[in-house]
Specification:
This protein is an alpha/beta fold. It has 23 helices and six strands. α1 packs across α3, α7 crosses α9 and α13 packs across α16. The longest helix has 22 residues.
Length: 460
């Protein structure tokens, strides 16, 4: 029975390969042959290709989809010519969380490439701070990524509340942490495949090296030498910038160094991957050509950025306009906003009142904007304003006041006191200031507003 099953699967894989080749342009087929040669050389020869494992971080653009199709075609082409082929590990990443529509899109691609039941392929998805087996509706629960939640809130309250900064370059630290999680305790990965253009790779590496250097961490000499070691050290920053001292996450992190992971850069194949053709029809990819995102921003959910912008606008608008906005909102738009908010909450464990609190930043600079925040959002707490200051100063106060601060902000009282006093470890301050300077595409942002820039060093 197993022999018949293997023969049937082999026939199906041949059909998939033929369909891919049929819909590839001449230039794409030439790129496929070049890719096969590179993989055989990287593995050490055809005799070692069966033990060679590739990791690809799957984004949400056509570039990522076509790269995956090319890798799958290479995997099946080698299998036709040899008894074994390389292993492929695919990690779907979209921060803060992948929408059901995006997961369904990836599922269509995986089904078209017949990857779901192939033992040579491992499909994963990043969700809730964990790397889990891929499913179109993963069970993402809040609380799995408390360090990322605290780091995001601490960053917004103390450093920069602008959406481009909150969901900017700091998301690359989260992605590196996810990559670190994907590499820990699993079968060794030999190479990370990327189609990022060389200029983008250099910009990302320079940004990562500076972030590590500002925190006093040594960066690998070259990402080509070991992508795993860079992801491991950069991912550790996710733990460090979420603690008041910045050193608590360092003391207990004794993870062994990862085995060297090479980077296979396929950016020279990029023109062929992005050229117009019929490959999208096979993949079932429905991305419009004009909706392509920047390569470095392909792992960020743009709806989350838009939501933060809208929420910030509501926070800064007069009260009457905020009330009118709630009254006139269309039901279908409200449902979409609620669904997006649910994804955000499940990924970080942050609800909308806590996001609103972060966007107001009421606790920084000894609570200078605390009274205005209470008048705007929590008028019933104005009578407790003196007790709120006492709690933030570490003085005795009713437990109900402490509970209100924790529930409203989403942060522990110890971190709220750090925000209130502005006493942050210098290394963490330098790191956060560096992260606040660039957006998700690592483009330089304008300086933060004066109210928040005073609390962040301008050394980055």
């Amino acid at each position: 029975m197993s022999v018949i099953h293997d023969q049937a699967m082999h026939y199906i894989y041949q059909q998939v390969l033929e369909r891919l080749l049929k819909h590839m342009s001449k230039a794409q087929r030439a790129s496929l042959q070049l890719l096969i040669q590179r993989l055989l050389v990287a593995a050490g020869g055809p005799e070692y290709i069966g033990n060679f494992r590739l990791l690809v971080v799957q984004g949400s653009d056509r570039r990522s989809a076509r790269l995956l199709a090319l890798l799958r075609a290479a995997q099946l082409s080698i299998a036709v010519r040899a008894p074994v082929t390389f292993k492929l590990q695919v990690m779907v990443a979209c921060l803060p969380a992948a929408s059901s529509a995006l997961l369904e899109q990836h599922e269509r691609s995986f089904n078209a490439l017949f990857m779901q039941d192939d033992p040579r392929v491992q499909l994963q998805v990043l969700g809730g701070g964990r790397v889990m087996p891929f499913h179109r509706r993963p069970a993402i629960e809040s609380g799995h990524w408390p360090v990322a939640r605290d780091a995001l809130l601490l960053f917004g309250h103390l450093i920069d509340v602008r959406p481009e900064a909150v969901l900017g370059s700091r998301t690359h630290v989260e992605l590196a942490d996810a990559l670190r999680l994907a590499l820990v305790g699993q079968t060794s990965v030999d190479a990370l495949v990327t189609a990022l253009p060389e200029g983008h790779r250099r910009r990302l590496l320079a940004w990562a090296r500076r972030a590590l250097r500002l925190f006093g961490e040594a960066a690998p000499g070259s990402v080509q030498e070991c992508a795993g070691r860079l992801a491991q050290r950069l991912g550790r920053l996710q733990e460090m910038d979420g603690t008041p001292s910045g050193l608590d996450g360092m003391a207990d992190n004794d993870e062994p160094e990862q085995a060297p992971i090479r980077v296979l850069a396929l950016d020279d194949l990029l023109p062929q991957l992005l050229s117009e053709g019929e490959l999208d029809l096979v993949m079932g990819w429905r991305c419009e050509p004009g909706q392509e995102s920047d390569p470095l921003a392909t792992f960020l959910d743009p709806i989350a950025l838009e939501q933060l912008h809208e929420l910030r606008w509501r926070c800064r608008a007069p009260v009457s306009r905020r009330q009118a906005l709630r009254l006139i909102g269309q039901p279908e738009l409200n449902r979409a906003a609620v669904a997006q908010q649910a994804r955000f909450a499940k990924a970080y464990g942050i609800d909308q009142p806590q996001l609103v609190c972060m966007l107001h930043s009421p606790f920084a600079n000894q609570g200078r904007r605390l009274e205005a925040f209470l008048r705007c959002r929590h008028a019933d707490m104005l009578v407790a304003l003196p007790y709120l200051h006492r709690a933030l100063q570490g003085q005795p106060c009713p437990d109900a006041v402490k509970d209100w601060l924790v529930n409203t902000s989403g942060l522990p009282l110890a971190q709220l006191r750090v925000i209130y006093e502005g006493h942050l470890d210098p290394a963490v301050r330098r790191l956060l200031a560096h992260l606040a300077r660039r957006d998700v595409q690592l483009r330089l942002l304008s300086r933060a507003p004066v109210a928040q820039a005073n609390s962040a060093e301008e050394t980055a």
